[in-house]
UniProtKB/TrEMBL annotation, chain A:
<feature type="transmembrane region" description="Helical">
    <location>
        <begin position="111"/>
        <end position="131"/>
    </location>
</feature>
<keyword id="KW-1003">Cell membrane</keyword>
<keyword id="KW-0813">Transport</keyword>
<dbReference type="InterPro" id="IPR035906">
    <property type="entry name" value="MetI-like_sf"/>
</dbReference>
<feature type="transmembrane region" description="Helical">
    <location>
        <begin position="267"/>
        <end position="290"/>
    </location>
</feature>
<feature type="transmembrane region" description="Helical">
    <location>
        <begin position="160"/>
        <end position="182"/>
    </location>
</feature>
<keyword id="KW-0812">Transmembrane</keyword>
Automatic annotation (TrEMBL), chain B:
<comment type="similarity">
    <text>Belongs to the bacterial solute-binding protein 1 family.</text>
</comment>
<keyword id="KW-0732">Signal</keyword>
<dbReference type="InterPro" id="IPR050490">
    <property type="entry name" value="Bact_solute-bd_prot1"/>
</dbReference>
<feature type="signal peptide">
    <location>
        <begin position="1"/>
        <end position="18"/>
    </location>
</feature>
<dbReference type="InterPro" id="IPR006059">
    <property type="entry name" value="SBP"/>
</dbReference>
<dbReference type="Pfam" id="PF13416">
    <property type="entry name" value="SBP_bac_8"/>
</dbReference>
<protein>
    <submittedName>
        <fullName>ABC transporter substrate-binding protein</fullName>
    </submittedName>
</protein>
Automatic annotation (TrEMBL), chain C:
<feature type="transmembrane region" description="Helical">
    <location>
        <begin position="193"/>
        <end position="213"/>
    </location>
</feature>
<feature type="transmembrane region" description="Helical">
    <location>
        <begin position="239"/>
        <end position="260"/>
    </location>
</feature>
<protein>
    <submittedName>
        <fullName>Carbohydrate ABC transporter permease</fullName>
    </submittedName>
</protein>
<keyword id="KW-0812">Transmembrane</keyword>
<keyword id="KW-0472">Membrane</keyword>
<feature type="transmembrane region" description="Helical">
    <location>
        <begin position="129"/>
        <end position="154"/>
    </location>
</feature>
<keyword id="KW-1003">Cell membrane</keyword>
Length: 297, 420, 274
């Protein structure tokens, strides 16, 4: 009996590993190994003609901490995430409620909200560049109709990051709306009737019934929004290139700059390691919360 | 797994089957222009002509978009041992490419008198960026300077002589004020994309170069340099002839064509595009001077990568010599507005005829006499980024020009100390 | 059309607001559509009375092999999605329903990769792709994304909520492990698959940085890279031609959504996504 039990356990283990194998192979090739290689590379100095690369321990990190630009882009990225994540999720929810309500031209409204999803960011950014251009840009023209002064949205440190964030929110809200819209359709209508009988207003109903039911969807969207707040930098290449004066530079853009413009791979590697550490922590925290708080369905 | 077979490999295979005279040396070149645009066809045609004349060499041109994308792709390829024998990249990347041990000097590749003569045949101002430590590392091809484009109709409307654009800063301000109306500004100098480039022009005109010839010293906090930035800022804050904040590089051409500004400073590389779409009478002029006339050069040079074998280096050299030969240089200049890179190019029939019909194409060449090397030092991208930020900070009013430039200078000092 | 939750909008102001936001959201596309039919100068000057023209489409169409790009994007998205579905299903199932030693440690490792994206590890990933001979192939663009930690996590959570009884019943009937997965778990996870597929398709349809690096030729470049290289604003942006290219490439999907949006939303509904 004990033998059969051991045998079964062993068989299960083999099955488990076999099931995992394809994923583990891919993860090793494109995540674990590159991460380790990056960590290793971050411990060496930049090799030049005069001085070949040598092991310098944590010096690259020390230099990074002394680099005011690093702190600036980190702050920028936090602000960017802090604005785009809640704003695009909230907007997505409102849009979904509208798109689900009985309003005129609903089909148009839905499609309109959805369009940013199919416009690649890189293409959309070119359009937005023309929206933002002072003088003959669309925003300025419209502002001009109301007598507003011309605003150089992308050319001022005070507005550049927000102008970039607005494009991100525009891009993401419509996409996230789809998930909310789908989730809304599954809420049984009798819940609303019951709420109405108890005299609950629309706002109360939304807050007490709809929002809790949408919680799993919100978490799903949240993870995606967080991932995007780090990786969605396509529009920076066209809109501002991180300027003016680094005002709209985000971390991943700075990593790119270090690796491919500054020819400084070790600095880029050190920054990457810090980003990975930060994100890994975030992922672990999130997992703890999600795993405990919700039964994901 | 058919998807995994690179299309290029399949093409190469078919080519090998089709033609028994298979190429002996294969070159991969990274090239910074937009795929599919009219320029691709020009380069493609030039490559095809070269291959026809040199059947033993085949050139695989990878069009990578803009300069940044090209550098990224070329570096990534080199890092992982992918073939890359030559590339056109920013002329100012020379120091970094040398320091990273990625390129070979042309002096080490050329053989014999004729090739030495070829190397000596370019405009000296265009060679400046590629000459480091007494050797030639980059050969000019896609080169430009900054010129002033101006709207002659607006000049007439303002009662100015359309054939007499400003030649000094004082005239620039004076005319700029007359040219500024409710509808349009007098002048726009772009301050995104390549702010340091425009600023360098102003500094040269004020009698100062931003860096030393050895790439080890910058002079951002020199009083004449600060004065140049003061002037740039004053164009909008004091004289009101330029919009406040930064002026976007990418949309400036359109702004000029729209009549948003009477004058713009921009790359000669835009000449053909402006010519094709201007709905008004426009002129091209040398930049005005203060202490002296001047503009930095700009654009891309050919580089040969160190990784290339001896045979590949020779083949690459043959290709570069073909591309920069007077006939080809003339062809390229006419198609784009970039400069003919050697005096011989301007003596060709094609370019002589073209410039006779369209004299603005000569402005860039004439300005070469006053041109200096584009801003480039060791650690050039970082130093430049510091300068860009200082310029933008000053233009947007978040720092004074003196403060901003002092900070940039201090940062540059720190970066360059390691190389002295 | 069945609508589970009609919410009569009580005030017109709200409907107006919804439509206003919709107009705002679609305005870039409308602008592009309008600009695409005018010459660059009229487009930039926003001259509503300007004459219409098809020249931009001719220029844009001749400028790049758009059909190839579209096909590449389509193949890429399908390839990535197929890979992701298979890999994440197998791994998610292992983590959720197969008990073996070391599972928790491995799961933690996978979780740490939740945010590790090929964009962040670009230099090293490029080397790996080069060593595997995957440069300039669709597989090379897609491979780094196939074992998605997010997908594995999602599948694990979904599979864990499948009632044990269903599993046991299938086993009693003599189903193999994979048989159980296929008959019981996969059908139960349909809504998750749909949601995940949407994220995946959208991500890879829009993905730019990594494909930019790994592709060299027209035969492999997806739409985003093609658009970017077509429009590279080295010396200036021609908004009318870019608009034409953008409209041309986005139109098929927008029209598809417009036509199929009911089916699209109902697919979610039927699947019962939460």
């Amino acid at each position: 009996m004990a033998d059969a039990f051991t045998l079964q356990r062993r068989r299960r283990a083999i099955h488990g590993w076999l099931l995992l194998a394809p994923s583990l192979v891919m993860l090793t090739a494109f995540a674990f190994y590159p991460s380790a290689a990056t960590l290793w590379a971050s411990l060496f100095s930049r090799g030049t003609r005069r001085r070949p690369a040598e092991f310098i321990g944590l010096e690259n990190y020390g230099r990074l901490f002394d680099d005011p630009t690093f702190w600036l882009v980190a702050t920028n990225n936090l602000l960017y995430a802090g604005v785009t994540i809640p704003l695009s999720i909230a907007l997505a929810l409102v849009m979904a409620l509208w798109a689900d309500a009985r309003i005129p031209a609903r089909s148009f409204v839905r499609t309109a909200y959805f369009t940013p999803t199919v416009l690649p960011m890189i293409a959309a950014a070119n359009l937005w560049l023309f929206f933002y251009t002072p003088g003959f840009g669309v925003l300025d023209r419209i502002g001009g109709l109301f007598g507003a002064a011309s605003v150089n949205w992308l050319g001022q440190p005070e507005t550049a990051l927000w102008a970039v964030s607005a494009v991100t929110v525009w891009k993401e809200a419509g996409f996230f709306m789809i998930f909310y819209l789908a989730a809304l359709q599954t809420i049984p209508p009798d819940l609303r009737e019951a709420a109405a009988i108890e005299g609950a207003g629309r706002w109360t109903y939304t807050r007490r019934v709809v929002l809790p039911l949408l919680m799993p969807t919100t978490l799903f969207i949240l993870v995606n929004a967080m991932i995007n707040s780090v990786k969605l930098i396509d529009h920076l290449f066209i809109l501002t290139r991180g300027g003016p004066s680094d005002a709209s530079k985000l971390i991943l853009y700075y990593v790119w700059e270090n690796a491919f413009a500054f020819f400084d791979r070790p600095a880029a590697a050190a920054m990457t390691v810090l980003v990975l550490a930060g994100l890994g922590t975030l992922a672990a925290l999130q997992f703890l919360v999600i795993d405990r708080r919700t039964h994901y369905r | 797994m058919r998807i995994a077979i690179p299309a290029a490999a399949m093409l190469a295979a078919t080519a090998a089957l089709a033609g028994p005279a298979a190429a002996e040396t294969e070159l991969t070149m990274y090239y910074p222009i937009a795929v599919g645009g009219p320029l691709t066809r020009v380069v493609d045609a030039m490559v095809a002509d070269f291959e026809a004349a040199n059947p033993e060499i085949s050139v695989n041109a990878i069009y990578a978009g803009n300069y940044d994308d090209t550098r990224i792709k070329a570096l990534a390829a080199l890092e992982s041992g992918e073939p890359a024998q030559l590339s056109v990249m920013f002329s100012i990347d020379a120091y970094d490419l040398i320091e990273q041990d990625l390129i070979v000097p042309f002096d080490a590749v050329i053989e014999g008198e004729a090739e030495a003569e070829w190397l000596a045949g370019f405009y000296p101002a265009l060679m400046a960026n590629g000459q480091v430590e007494g050797q030639v590392w980059g050969v000019p091809f896609q080169r430009s300077t900054i010129v002033a484009y101006y709207n002659k109709d607006m000049f007439r409307a303002a009662g100015l002589d359309p054939e007499a654009p400003p030649t000094t800063w004082d005239e620039l301000v004076e005319m700029g004020e007359k040219l500024t109306t409710d509808e349009h500004y007098g002048i726009m100098i772009p301050s995104t994309g390549y702010p340091y480039w425009m600023f360098q022009a102003l500094a040269i005109q004020n009698g100062r170069e931003l860096m030393s010839d050895d790439g080890l010293t910058t002079r951002f906090d020199d009083p004449a340099v600060i004065e140049a930035l003061d002037f740039w800022r004053a164009l909008s804050t004091v004289y009101g002839v330029m919009p406040e904040g930064t002026v976007e590089w990418g949309t400036l051409r359109q702004a000029f064509l729209e009549g948003e500004t009477a004058m713009m400073w921009h790359s000669t590389g835009n000449l053909t595009a402006v010519r094709n779409s201007a709905g008004f009478d426009f002129g091209v002029a040398m930049l005005p001077g203060n202490v002296r006339l001047g503009s930095p050069t700009g654009g891309g040079n050919f580089y040969i990568f160190k990784e290339a074998t001896e045979a590949e280096r020779r083949a690459a050299l043959a290709f570069i010599m073909f591309m920069t030969a007077p006939e080809q240089a003339a062809r390229w200049s006419i198609a784009t507005g970039y400069m003919g890179v050697s005096p011989a190019a301007y003596e060709t029939e094609a370019l002589t005829a073209y410039t006779a019909e369209f004299p603005p194409a000569l402005v860039a060449r004439d300005q070469l006499e006053h041109a200096v090397a584009e801003f480039s030092t060791f650690e050039t991208a970082r130093v430049r980024e510091g300068l860009n930020n200082a310029i933008q900070a000053a233009l947007t009013g978040s720092k004074t020009p003196a403060e901003a430039l002092a900070e940039a200078q201090a940062a540059a000092e720190r970066l360059l100390a390691a190389y002295r | 059309m069945s609508r589970a939750m009609p919410q009569p909008s009580r005030n017109h102001a709200e409907a107006m607001l919804a439509i206003l936001v919709a107009l705002l959201w679609i305005s870039p596309l409308v602008f592009a559509l309008w600009a695409a039919f005018h010459n660059a100068s009229d487009a930039a000057s926003f001259d509503l009375g300007a004459p219409w023209t098809l020249a931009n489409f001719r220029t844009a169409w001749a400028g790049a092999p758009w059909l190839t790009y579209l096909l590449n994007s389509f193949l890429l998205v399908s390839l990535v999605l197929a890979g992701q579905l298979v890999l994440t299903t197998l791994a998610g199932f292992a983590f959720a329903q197969v008990a073996f030693r070391g599972k928790d440690t491995v799961f933690l490792l996978v979780l740490l990769q939740l945010f590790i994206l090929p964009e962040v590890l670009i230099v090293e990933n490029y080397r790996v792709a080069a060593r595997l001979g995957l440069l300039d192939t669709l597989l090379g663009i897609g491979a780094p994304y196939m074992a998605s930690a997010f997908g594995i996590f999602l599948m694990r959570q979904t599979f864990r909520s499948v009632p044990k009884e269903l599993d046991e019943a299938a086993r009693v009937e003599g189903c193999s492990l994979l048989g159980v997965l296929w008959r019981v778990y996969v059908p139960a996870a349909r809504p998750t698959y749909l949601a995940y597929a949407l994220v995946s398709i959208s991500t890879h349809w829009n993905n730019f940085l990594w494909p930019l690096i790994v592709t060299n030729t027209e035969g492999t470049r997806p739409l985003t890279v093609g658009l970017s290289i077509f429009a590279a604003p080295e010396n200036g942006v021609d908004i009318a031609v870019i608009s034409a290219a953008t409209v041309m490439t986005a139109a098929p999907l927008v029209v598809l959504f417009l036509v199929f949006q009911r089916q699209f939303v109902q697919a979610f509904l039927r699947a019962g996504i939460k």
